[in-house]
Amino acid sequence: MNFAVPPEAYARFMGRYAEPLAAVFASFVGVEARDKVLDVGCGPGALTAHLLSVGAVVVAIDPSPPFVDAIRVRFPDVDVRQGAAEELPYGTAAFDAAVAQLVVHFMTDPVVGVRQMARVTRRGGVVAACVWDGPTGALAPFWDAVHVMAPSVEDEALLSGAHEGHLTELFEAAGLRDVEEDSIAVDVVHPTFDEWWEPYTLGVGPAGAYFQQLDDEARARLEGVARERLGSGPFTVTATAWAARGTV
């Protein structure tokens, strides 16, 4: 999946949801000041920024070189590395918590990735992740419009963790204890349709990849369907995610 995109494009596409979600997710996890936290799949830094703001000591990792470079510029004091969740380059029990916001569903092997997060977290520490709910997540309005045109197209609802209970299954398979799962949500107001729509044209993630493979006529039709459904704005997208935490 294409996340080798300019950090600015990702921020325009997903940052508008990821930034407010970070505060809700960190509260769910229970991160406190001075906790040493690993941000797995940090992207351009939505969760990293919030964790730093509450006084956590943050280490970050992401497979995308542009995102790693962006973190280094934005937070020069943060230890950030390029790498995948399935092969975390850290010692055992190095962190108080390991967290992954909007990442598990893109891991090549989610159980291995979560197991690695548990390995690098101290005994009694917390591993946590959140993933957009398929039918009601941040991208649901886009895929709803797609399904008006092409009902059989697979959206992101089938990705790992994107339905109730699946994160719990992954966490328990990875050996975590006392797993708790709940829904969390943020409301994002879009002042105009065009402000909401334009980031989907940038080629970010599965939605962007789907848009890019359409011809000009199909793109125009999809935009028209979405505009008809959502209106000219302002409108609010309530983005729901599933969040799980477990103890090492």
TrEMBL record:
<dbReference type="InterPro" id="IPR051052">
    <property type="entry name" value="Diverse_substrate_MTase"/>
</dbReference>
<dbReference type="Pfam" id="PF08241">
    <property type="entry name" value="Methyltransf_11"/>
</dbReference>
<feature type="domain" description="Methyltransferase type 11">
    <location>
        <begin position="38"/>
        <end position="128"/>
    </location>
</feature>
<dbReference type="InterPro" id="IPR013216">
    <property type="entry name" value="Methyltransf_11"/>
</dbReference>
<dbReference type="GO" id="GO:0032259">
    <property type="term" value="P:methylation"/>
</dbReference>
<protein>
    <submittedName>
        <fullName>Class I SAM-dependent methyltransferase</fullName>
    </submittedName>
</protein>
<keyword id="KW-0808">Transferase</keyword>
<dbReference type="GO" id="GO:0008757">
    <property type="term" value="F:S-adenosylmethionine-dependent methyltransferase activity"/>
</dbReference>
<comment type="similarity">
    <text>Belongs to the methyltransferase superfamily.</text>
</comment>
<keyword id="KW-0489">Methyltransferase</keyword>
<dbReference type="InterPro" id="IPR029063">
    <property type="entry name" value="SAM-dependent_MTases_sf"/>
</dbReference>
